[in-house]
């Protein structure tokens, strides 16, 4: 199993991701975390991820999870599995973690992706919401992401469990603790949201790891490291 879980895109250096992937090739871009946004904003979000991936030598193609939800509401999981199996890497961008989780459930991606990862047929690279959704729980993330957007966007109640691919929660966008005044460089509202998420996880006794926007968690087989 190979995972690259970051707070923001490639972190400080794309080298760990490239080392995990090997030779860059086709990458499936999943932007479901932005499905609640206006169409123009969502389109811009996809472009903003495609460009840096292209510069690294990848060939990005968007995989819109909404295309794999049947008219009867049932997931077209087999079709999605065939599509995802053709990529060497999945790139799952940030946005609303609860919306991403719901769209994964509606499309069957929450079953297909872990199965593909167990077979080590691709690399999963996700940042912010794309990283958080791989954890056991979304507890505390309502400090920054609005669960109410799920009903309006997906027509279902929000799910509070993640995919459980890693065994700890992730708190992205954490100020660098070693730099004096670092928290002041983060917008006050964002810094307060991070503090509330950390507090909620601590009170619930949930293991978690914080990530600054320069950091990422790399899982390669049985080894997990912070880079």
UniProtKB/TrEMBL annotation:
Entry's family note: Belongs to the peptidase S51 family.
Organism field: Rhodococcus jostii
Organism domain of life: Bacteria
Regions that span the bilayer: none
Full protein name: Type 1 glutamine amidotransferase-like domain-containing protein
Keywords of this entry: Hydrolase, Protease, Serine protease
Keyword Hydrolase applies: yes
Entry keyword annotation includes Cell inner membrane: no
């Amino acid at each position: 199993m190979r995972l690259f879980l970051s707070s923001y895109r490639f972190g400080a250096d794309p080298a760990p991701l490239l080392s995990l992937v090997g030779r860059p090739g086709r990458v499936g871009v999943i932007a479901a975390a932005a499905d609640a946004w206006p169409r123009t904003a969502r389109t811009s979000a996809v472009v903003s991820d495609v460009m840096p991936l292209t510069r690294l030598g990848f060939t990005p193609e968007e995989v819109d999870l909404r295309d794999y939800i049947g008219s009867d509401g049932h997931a077209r999981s087999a079709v999605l599995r065939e599509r995802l199996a053709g990529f060497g890497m999945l790139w799952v961008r940030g946005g609303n973690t609860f919306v991403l989780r719901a769209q994964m459930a509606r499309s069957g991606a929450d079953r297909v992706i872990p199965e593909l990862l167990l077979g080590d047929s691709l690399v999963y690279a996700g940042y912010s919401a794309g990283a958080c959704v791989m954890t056991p729980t979304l507890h505390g993330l309502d400090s920054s992401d609005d669960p109410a957007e799920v009903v309006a966007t997906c027509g279902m109640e929000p799910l509070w469990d993640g995919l459980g691919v890693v065994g700890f929660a992730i708190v992205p966008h954490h100020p660098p603790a070693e730099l004096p005044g670092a928290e002041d460089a983060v917008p006050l509202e964002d810094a307060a949201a991070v503090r509330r998420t950390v507090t909620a996880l601590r009170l619930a006794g949930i293991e978690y790891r914080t990530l600054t926007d320069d950091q990422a968690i790399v899982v390669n087989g049985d080894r997990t490291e912070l880079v």
